[in-house]
Design a protein that fits this description.
Layout: H1 2-5, H2 13-32, H3 63-78, H4 83-96, H5 110-120, H6 145-150, H7 156-168, H8 174-191, H9 196-211, H10 225-228, H11 246-259, H12 263-272, H13 277-292, H14 299-303, H15 308-324
Helix pairs in contact: 2-3, 2-13, 2-15, 3-4, 3-15, 4-5, 7-8, 8-9, 11-12, 11-13, 12-13
Length: 325
């Protein structure tokens, strides 16, 4: 199957973009996972020509990919966003290693684990996500692509409400919801055949309009001032952070996409920033995979993914379902 689907143009461009977004998550995750926690200085000489081997075999992916594809599975199975179903599937991943490359969950964050334990203890899934200042990690942003794609043609308010709901299962702080919403607006802009620069302007305009008039989001707006005021794209590489903080991940994603012209270069730059390399590259990969399409993802990277055939099958099954809708 891989030889037929990777490295070739898919007849339906939209289908190629949707599949590219999901596979982009997996490829970015696998490219960055072995370097998680490294500094930019430590990665300065790494070429990123192939998926590297770290503590696990090359092509190993972590929680970013697991939770993204589990989300896609849930949407396909239920035909809608169902937090109870999603929480059950996430808990199965955590407890039994469901949808993992080697039979156990890898790379998971504390906020996600705490939320799933709250759900297992009987808390409704929409109330399980942390709401404190220390719950502003990127653990929901990294898995948001299927939700955004599922609602990409919906009215803006429906799209953003769905993204907020999906995030709230593990991360419910308004700052995280806002970051996920801005990510959703970026993909929505690109789905309307905007260039990257046009999509960035769309995010600034629509994001400012929607969130500035909605409490408690308005109180969180200042954390994204680099984007609102247009200074982000003038920063130098050493001024960009790529930690597990959701604001860092989102702003780094925008900056990386503005600085590169193809999928390969976008992911290489994402990993070279260091810190939370797998999630930064996974989020960048989801947008770059959508914008450039599956055919522009290096075939050697796709071929090296652990359980790559299954990932490709599910990505195309999801894309076909989206086409039918």
């Amino acid at each position: 199957m891989r030889a037929k689907l990777v490295g070739k143009k898919v007849a339906d461009k939209i289908k190629e973009k949707i599949a590219g977004s999901l596979i982009g998550v997996a490829v970015g995750d696998a490219l960055g996972f072995p370097f998680e926690g490294c500094s930019a200085k430590e990665l300065k000489e790494v070429r990123f020509c192939y998926l590297p081997q770290g503590s696990y075999p090359a092509g190993t992916w972590s929680d970013d990919t697991s939770l993204t594809f589990i989300t896609a599975e849930s949407l396909l199975a239920k035909g809608r966003l169902d937090l109870h179903d999603l929480a059950q599937r996430f808990y199965l991943w955590l407890k039994e290693g469901y949808f993992t490359p080697h039979g156990r969950p890898l790379g998971f964050g504390r906020a996600t684990v705490r939320a799933l334990w709250r759900y297992a203890a009987g808390l409704p899934p929409e109330k399980a996500g942390g709401r404190g200042e220390r719950d502003c990690g990127n653990g929901s942003l990294m898995r948001m692509a299927p939700v955004v794609l599922w609602f990409i043609s919906s009215p803006e308010e429906t799209l953003l409400a769905s993204v907020h709901e999906a995030s709230s299962l593990t991360h419910a702080h308004p700052r995280v919801l806002l970051a996920c919403g801005l990510y959703a607006l970026l993909l929505k802009g690109l789905s309307q055949k905007m260039t990257l620069n046009e999509a960035f302007l769309y995010v600034r305009e629509r994001g400012m309009c929607f969130y500035s008039r909605n409490l408690p989001f308005a109180k969180e707006m200042s954390h994204f001032d680099l984007l609102w005021k247009g200074r982000l794209f003038h920063l130098k590489k050493e001024e960009i952070r790529a930690s597990g903080y959701v604001v860092h991940t989102l702003l780094a994603t925008f900056w990386i996409l503005a600085r590169t012209n193809n999928f390969r270069e976008a992911l290489k730059l994402a990993v070279s920033l260091g810190e939370d390399t797998d999630t930064t590259a996974a989020v960048v990969g989801s947008v770059a995979g959508f914008y450039y399409g599956l055919s522009q993802i290096p075939p050697s990277w796709c071929h090296s993914l652990i359980k790559g055939d299954h990932l490709l099958y599910l990505a195309f099954h999801f894309a076909e379902k989206m086409e039918a809708r």
